Amino acid sequence: VTALRSTHAMEQNQLKQFEQYCATLYTSPDAAERSAAEAALVQLSSTPEYLPQCQFVLDHSKYAYAQLVAANALKKLLVQSWNHLTPSQQLDFRNYTLSYLAQRGTSIEPFVSSNLVQIVATVTKLGWSSGEEHKAIVQEVSKFLHATTGHLVLGLQLLQQLVAEMNMAGNTRSLTQQRKVSASFRDTALFQILQIGLRTLQQLSTGAIPCSGDEEPRIREQSLSLCLSCLGFDFIGTTLDEASEEMGTVQVPSSWRSVMEEAATMQLFFDIYAASSAPISSKALEVLVLLASLRRSLFSSDDERQAFLGRLLRGTLHLLQSQHGLTEHENYHELCRLLARLKANYQLSELVQADCYREWISMVATFTIDSFKHWQWAANSVYYLLSLWSRLVASMPYLKGDVPSQLDSYVPQVITAFIHSRMELVRALQQQGGEPGGGPDDPLDNEEQLTEQLDTLPSLCRFQLQQASSYVLSLFEPCAKLYSQLLSLPTERARDADVAARLSQCEGELAWLVYIIGTVLGSHLTPSSNSEAQQLVDAELTCIVLQLLSLLDAPANVQLRREVRSNQHLELALLFFMQQFRKVYVGDQATAVSKIYAVLQERLNLSDHLAVLAVLMNKIIANLKRRSDCLDITEKTLTLLADLAGGYSSGKLLLKLESVHLVLANHTSAEFPFLDVAANSRLRTTFYCTLCKLLFSDDQAGPFKAFMKPFTELMTQLREQSSPEQFSSPQV
Length: 732
Hints:
Elements: H1 12-27, H2 31-41, H3 51-60, H4 64-80, H5 87-104, H6 110-127, H7 132-135, H8 137-145, H9 149-166, H10 175-206, H11 215-231, H12 257-261, H13 263-275, H14 280-291, H15 302-322, H16 329-345, H17 348-353, H18 357-373, H19 375-378, H20 382-394, H21 407-432, H22 447-455, H23 457-463, H24 465-487, H25 491-494, H26 497-521, H27 532-552, H28 555-561, H29 565-585, H30 595-604, H31 609-626, H32 631-646, H33 648-654, H34 658-665, H35 681-695, H36 702-719, H37 724-727
Helix pairs in contact: 1-2, 3-4, 4-6, 5-6, 6-9, 8-9, 9-10, 9-11, 10-11, 11-14, 13-14, 13-15, 14-16, 15-18, 16-20, 18-21, 20-23, 21-23, 21-24, 21-26, 23-24, 23-26, 24-26, 24-27, 26-27, 26-29, 27-29, 27-30, 29-32, 31-32, 32-35
């Protein structure tokens, strides 16, 4: 280290000026002064010759911001010049940083020590393949663990940052080099580091580590973070987020088997949760989520895995019964993740074999229903709860044996509670009145969140379809009736604030119900995949939705409500429903003998595909004519038209409709005002692309001439313009 560092690398007056630059950079309110200071300080990280100066600042400055700048520059220079340093120099820089942390790490600011910790992790990773000394990092850091409690926290931070660094793909190395280093670290050091984290937590629980009241939570939280990093490691080099919801399993090495199977390991984290508050308790649950995701082949036998599952179920059951900590959002969310992960990683047949399954499923159902009732708490957790029940229901066909699953009694309650919670959400948003801040977010304004919630519904609703549809009808019919009555009021009365609020509430509730109906309707690929009874239910639900169309498209109602966001939500929901209906009951996959058309004939006089297609086409035309100022409605409408025209069967059917031929002959902005809206310029291309697809599907020449007539007239008008001034006029 002495060879690299000169005590005269920077004079004291230069150090003082350096500190002034740092103070200006981080504390000056003047942007110009900050820029000038940054330009002066950036030179420190410009060339490896400044490595001694970085060390000089760290050794001699007591100003935290100066130490921070020097630490950042030191890390940047080491990474840039790593290949130009000798192996002994590389090791000296690591030892220098470790020594600095040992001597001053507990007295400097946390943001400085965290940067120095990153230097140790980065240097160790860069040098991992070049010498055994770098691989002895765990032994070096272990010296911190047996000193003061402050050093213990630093040591845990060093190990946690080292694991995170080894798991991260850096820009300085190829993917092959990264995987080679990562795999070597996994095989030689990772398990040892995990054991350090577990041992520290156990010693804290037994009081073996002497520490003050405020030090214990820091040590526990850092130990939990270390365990999380170890269990979330990229064990097999396929993903950098081993614990993602899509991945599903944690591929820990077989050498970890004995520790993972040991009952005390899991119980340790349940005990920490019970004795702590957030964020420590939520981290304990995060570790349990990863434990619930351990790969099946890790366990020595099926009996051992079943015992492991039994411990998980008993732990979560006790947590649900006690309700300890569930008033804190972090704990609540992680518990929902844990419950969803249990079903994602275990079969329903394994769950029902657990001795506490009956109590567990009952408490989970109660917890889910309560969550939906208090949806303000569960806004971001609804997905996990719906996912759990959807997966449970999807496993029912594969459940063998005589052990009852209890799902028949609980699933209808869960569906009812969820749908009711959406109605309550609409009312809460209505009471909020769109005021900024403090209120819940509307999933109807967030397509990604809406899709997340809807995707899990079909399997749930079809499990007890008759009960679910009856409940939807019981909500839909009175709401639609009230909506119709309110719209029939005189225009002056309908603009009244109270009536307008009730209309918005009706539209919000109907939008959710239409989305739910559309999701259930589109959840099967073809009508033949549905039983006759299910098709009849689909028909009932379709009838009540189609009856809304004429009400919404009445010119007076469009004029009154089209600018209101709740009305736009309802329109988007109807377009979603029509898209789902098209996929199943119109076009190439559909059959004319579908039972749904018998009901539609009886109730709405719609006897076949063509009749329903005429209704859909009329709705498309109405949207394009009367809702030109709403971009998202126009876009979804044109997507529906393009999908209908794109199907071989549905495209041929469209050409049999008089309304389609009228559109082909009259397609200018005079008939479709959305074409003149600047924001819709891209949608013009979609519109004409779809019309041309229909046009060229027709073998007759007459429609083509009628289609081209407006363009011919326009070109004739342009040809008559003679001067540049005329061409520059807004009309042209």
